[in-house]
Amino acid sequence: MTAPLRLGLAGLGTVGIGVVKIVQRHAGLITARTGRPVTITAVSARDRTKNRDADLSAYAWEDDPVALARRDDVDVLIEVMGGHDGPARAATEAAIAAGKDVVTANKALLAHHGQELAEAAEAAGAVIRFEAAVAGGIPVIKALTEGLAGNEIRRVMGVMNGTCNYILTRMQAAGLPYATVFEEARQLGYLEADPNLDVGGIDAGHKLSLLAAIAFGTRVSFDKVELEGIGNVSIEDINLADEMGYHIKLLGVAQMSGRGLEQRMTPCLVPAESPLGQLQGGTNMVVLEGDSVGQIVLRGPGAGEGPTASAVMADVIDLARGLRISTFGQPAATLAQPVAARSATPAPYYIRATLLDKPGALAKIATCLGEAGISIDQMRQLNKPGEKDDLAVVLIVTHKAAPADIAHALDQFGATGVMLGAPVAIRIEAV
Amino acid sequence: MTAPLRLGLAGLGTVGIGVVKIVQRHAGLITARTGRPVTITAVSARDRTKNRDADLSAYAWEDDPVALARRDDVDVLIEVMGGHDGPARAATEAAIAAGKDVVTANKALLAHHGQELAEAAEAAGAVIRFEAAVAGGIPVIKALTEGLAGNEIRRVMGVMNGTCNYILTRMQAAGLPYATVFEEARQLGYLEADPNLDVGGIDAGHKLSLLAAIAFGTRVSFDKVELEGIGNVSIEDINLADEMGYHIKLLGVAQMSGRGLEQRMTPCLVPAESPLGQLQGGTNMVVLEGDSVGQIVLRGPGAGEGPTASAVMADVIDLARGLRISTFGQPAATLAQPVAARSATPAPYYIRATLLDKPGALAKIATCLGEAGISIDQMRQLNKPGEKDDLAVVLIVTHKAAPADIAHALDQFGATGVMLGAPVAIRIEAV
């Protein structure tokens, strides 16, 4: 039996308390699996007096997480405070500077400072692990970094924000508009204090940028993720997509094209019958595609005390077993500078446009598409006779087209003089 | 840069050649990810002269895989020959005796000899890895052993024989009987030389026994798996199940009940809308349930050159990175002797019985169920008027019942004198 692995736990919110519970409940199981005891020696949080759902009396208390990280009786810092700067960053840097390993659930911290933290960790002989930062309880970092390590990764996709998927599937199931379901989600406590982290796609974008770094051996580049939230997804488009056999998801896609790394976190149409299309409510799903393995789909809870703590403990147990891998799967210095490509990979697009119902209006729109080199797969006018007869809603599905060509055509729509409001265009991702 | 990791490859069939291709194609990628070169130094197969789809000229040749395993320039034996005794076992034992690590795709070998091989490996300071042995390209051994290591596992389920799932989904899609689709599968080359390994559930049972050992910390006990193949699944039952919203799958289930470890590999009804129910064709799926994480679903290709070689290489890369874990996730000596429980966990059952159409026949069957303590959820007679009016086909769905009670009731059916042939009973698994 080797010496215990001693944890310092910074953050006693939902995830932190979940970690305490597993360490306490499964001490025997964990020792059997790792060959050594795993113990918590000290904890830190903002408010010592808060009533928490766990017995913390055996642990030393530190008001300052940086002091926690530096304690001699802490081998590993568990950082579950959150926030991409401030105490989370300071404590992580302090732990690394002291040569200690860090397990973190903090996607924002790594999305913003992953490269410098990885370099610092490697220089100090420390390891950073972050299974809990992406897709909650799904062991996707491990699947990608280790399980598919013999593959050149072709594409990574995922629905990685449960709140957005809840909102979109609830809109569809209940036929309710975005604003109503957003308000429901807020009242249910599903939204972050800054809801834009969820519905603006930022949280999911953080996660995608971490997966992309591992998948393609590139530096984390969250600032290069094309971000579009779900605030403009209308119930009308959800219903029209459904009629055609598609569901709308906030889908992250990372892939290497001839022009470099593409990272998108945007609403997409996916086939209703695909695993991604069938995903309901707050569940997460990640799809990994490798040159040898083909397609692997991972599905599970993306948040919550138990699932997130399970992921934190997987990292802790890896460290207790002696597994030491570079943060993003290869030495930080060898990660390539990603080419800042906007997406160039062609795809079919769903386009909905409201036109003044004048003779030739449809032809003008079709001409814009044709002149941009885009061919039309389906085109139909949605109004039933007698209904809103001063305007025509037109639904178009294109054949595969480059995103830039789509953007150009939509620009040209405006110059036709027949548009009523802005057109909607949503990518149809082949999954 | 540390020294190369030198592989000895025993077996040059589909999987072996797949490994050669990855090692050759991704030498740079693998070195970047592991910090050291991974090379093949020697290979072995039955027939040296056979034309193979890879350039093997740089590798030493051994006719005898045992000699390969003992070579001084081999650090790791890759055993992809198959067979639970004979050369595969001899080579594996020779490698372990020489203190060398083994990566194997051989589920039969480990299902039969896993405990003794694990003990020998640990005594010799060697490691056995077998990601490729279960569910092909899906990194499920890693997900269970490492990714969910902080959980007490509640249940493991899986569709892990692609040929069986192909046959069952093809029967349903085409409305064809088992014998016809079995013959199709044989002609397509989907079946093992001994088809009973596939359709008898043996191959899938091997896999289940390995997952169960890891999940529950028990010795591999393939001989305790309740095995029932798909040979008796009729198109009639597939169609009737479908009408009720279920699909029939050859489903493996391992769970710990009050009476010990239960392992079943049997046809089951699962909800058509569940991830398992939706699984089509040769794809595999494994469902892992842990006390903290909840339910994780993994889906991917269960066989084939690329996927299986991907899994072999994941193990090789783990070894190159220095990961060393006990074969079944904890020291072999600490694995418990599993209680040889036949399944006792209650479930609803689907029962189809053909009765002589006499007054009181239905009541007699219902009485048998009632006397066994089984209550009926649905019961209906299937014959349409005028059709086969000398007999009545009765479909029953029970409430949750213990398997032993179901078996007892079916026994009693025979004594009623109203049965025409044997009844069919299929477990409905809650997934």
Question: Could you spell the SSE succession of chain A in H and E letters?
Answer: EHHEEHEHEHEHEHHHHEHEEEEHEHEEHE
Q: What is the subunit organization of this protein?
A: homodimer
Low-confidence blocks of residues of chain A: none
Q: Quick one: CATH superfamily of the largest domain in chain A?
A: Dihydrodipicolinate Reductase, domain 2
Structural class of chain A: alpha/beta
**DSSP summary, beta strand count of chain A:** 16
User: Biggest interface: chains and residue counts?
Assistant: A-B, 59 and 59 residues
Kindly state the percentage of residues in helix of chain A.
25-40%
Beta fraction of chain A: 15-25%
CATH class category label of the largest domain in chain A: Alpha Beta
Number of helices of chain A: 14
Can you walk me through this structure?
Chain A has three domains: 5-133, NAD(P)-binding Rossmann-like Domain (Rossmann fold), CATH 3.40.50; 140-301, 2-Layer Sandwich (Dihydrodipicolinate Reductase, domain 2); 349-428, ACT domain (Alpha-Beta Plaits, 2-Layer Sandwich). Helix content of chain A is 36%, strand content 24%. Chain A is elongated and about 80 Å long. The first copy, chain A, has 431 residues and is α/β, with parallel strands linked by helices. Chain A has helices at 14-25, 27-34, 65-70, 87-97, 107-124, 140-147, 162-174, 178-187, 196-199, 202-216, 235-243, 305-321, 361-371, 403-414, and strands at 5-10, 38-44, 60-62, 76-79, 101-104, 128-129, 153-159, 226-227, 246-257, 260-271, 283-290, 294-301, 349-356, 376-381, 391-398, 424-428. In chain A, α4 runs parallel beside α5 (107-124), α5 (107-124) packs parallel to α10 (202-216) and α7 (162-174) crosses α8. Chain A starts with a strand and ends with a strand. Chain A has 14 helices and 16 strands. In chain A, strands 7, 8, 9, 10, 11, 12, 13, 14, 15 and 16 form a ten-stranded mixed sheet that branches. In chain A, strands 3-2-1-4-5-6 form a six-stranded parallel sheet, with helices on both faces. At the A-B interface, α1, α2, α6, β12 and α12 of A face α1, α2, α6, β12 and α12 of B. β12 (294-301) of chain A pairs antiparallel with β12 of chain B, so a sheet runs across the interface. Chains A, B: The active site is at 207 (proton donor). Chains A, B: Belongs to the homoserine dehydrogenase family. Chains A, B: GO terms for molecular function: homoserine dehydrogenase activity; NADP binding.
